[in-house]
Amino acid sequence: MLGRLRMSVEDCIYHYSDLMDRVFSKVHTQPMKVNWSKASLETQSRFDTRALEAAIKNVIGEVVGDSNELMLEEDPQCKV
């Protein structure tokens, strides 16, 4: 956020606090999920990865204007 998005420290703290609330609020209580039709066990992440992706895209969209903007810069101004 500091380097690529060129945000101030205050803005980073604000957006990261919002991101934490969105991503880490819903916890999957069972680390394993049983798929009886396939007779297999599937591991499940503790937090929802789709919520993380949506929260990151939201921050990028608010700051840059395009939520699908790539984070890789060819000539970075700040090497954070």
Short characterization:
The protein is an alpha+beta fold. It is 39% helix and 10% strand. The longest helix has 16 residues, at 49-64.
Topology at a glance:
Layout: H1 9-23, E1 32-35, E2 40-43, H2 49-64
Antiparallel strand pairs: 1-2
Helix pairs in contact: 1-2
Please give a structural write-up.
The protein is α+β, with helices and mostly antiparallel strands and 80 residues long. It has a domain of 51 residues. Helices cover 39% and strands 10% of the residues. It contains two helices and two strands; from the N terminus they run H-E-E-H. It has a two-stranded antiparallel sheet. Helix 1 packs antiparallel against helix 2. The protein starts with 8 loop residues before the first helix and ends in a 16-residue tail after the last helix.
